Amino acid sequence: MTGRASADRRRVWVFLGIVGVVLGGGGLLLHGASGTPSPAAGGDPPAAAIAAANDLSAAFRYASERVLPSVVTIRTVVESTVSSRGTAPAFPEEFEPLLKRFFGEDLPEFDLRTPRPFRQEGMGSGVIIDPNGIILTNNHVVGGGERGKVKVIVRLHDGREFTAVDVKSDPKTDLAIVRIEGAGPLAAAPLGDSDAIQIGDWVLAIGNPFGLSHSVTAGIISAKSRGMGIAEREDFLQTDAAINPGNSGGPLVNLRGEVIGINTAISTRGGGSDGVGFAVPINLARWVGTQLVEKGSVQRAFLGISIQQVNSDLSKQFGLSAVQGAVVTEVRPDSAAAQAGVQVGDVVVEFDGHPIHNPRDLQNVVERSSLDTPHKLTIMRNGKHLTLEVRLQPMPQNLTASRSSAEPAQPSEFDDLGLEVANLTPEVAERLGMTGATGVVITNVAAGSLAEELGLREGMVITRVGRQSINTVEDFRAAVKDADLKTGLLLLVRTAEGSRFIVLKRP
User: Fold this and answer.
1) What is the band of 116 on the pLDDT scale with cuts at 50, 70, 90?
2) Which among 125, 169, 170, 174 is annotated as catalytic?
């Protein structure tokens, strides 16, 4: 593999706040032209083309001038003391020969007990959303206080600086609210409608890349509803507007000068812009920010189901006409979904009139819904549309299940599938972190088998085959007896993290 090929593979996700910034230690690389552009062949450019370009420039100027007074620089300072384990040379004996090569026979003693000052600085951006001093930014911009108390300093567009009197964060969306006092009425940026933005629309990214305050770059919306695995709750807008470290928390703006996103992360090989940036949609940020201001935390609604993306194989198994929706893999007892009659294997296609294309769509619309009113949940069950009425519940604080391992117990072999399974006892279910689960536990997966290729592993529990619930090995044997692996065998598989459907199908 060439060096360039290796570099191309080293893509990382980078949040855009600058941590440990040192200004003045580096230089600027200036890219100059090798010559002077020549006029276009055939004479001067058409007047209409110049007029169109000037109109676009005027739109950029208007949007910039409308929002720039609302953009702030956010600097965080963490100051504390660190101390460590005490006087050494209490090195393990096996390290002494190596240490003597560097220090000689008399090993030094290091006094590590004396507290040492520690200082960490970070820099990012924010945007004023309320004239009374409410600023919207990213959680990772104002965080970083693991070693001490964070001091958040806000520098306004006019150069004045204020120390934040309150900071409230929502790590799930990587958003935060910062409040300052004594600045007088401030210029608040107008907030737009991120649902109305379309792929291909022009946008501006405003912030402080590399500490260069109030920089403006232009690009388009490249994609919507991106989920990149960099936050718990994701519905990112993707843009090719150049955003870089320091842009975090700054606004993404449409040509009307309205904020339609909060810049959050970039995909990069070298730490700078590769033309792939991500912003939290302003509709989500507005909802989170309002709750942080009014309640100090975010209260989310909860339906009480685990869901999975519908793919081509699953759409055929469930008789769907399109590859869309969210298939239910688990229903929590006594949850809103259970009370409404939702069943495992139902495919959610609509919630309160909002089409559901994937699990993220359902999660986003449910979590922001009211707890006080009933909602309409449209599902596909056995090829038919059903509409259920649900009353949502508050989301529990902790939804994480524990992990463990299982012990084989009287396994039965299913060579065609490449599996060995055993009855799931209550003791084994508890060790697996699935107390109360029923089904058969996978005790062995044959190397190179179809089951292994599709991700089945020891310790997983098979709870359904097709539409039939499984309680014993005999249930499983009867359900797979006449299975046709050319058309596909639908399994519902459960782990401590949740359930998902798998289709065992030979290519």
Assistant:
1) low
2) 174
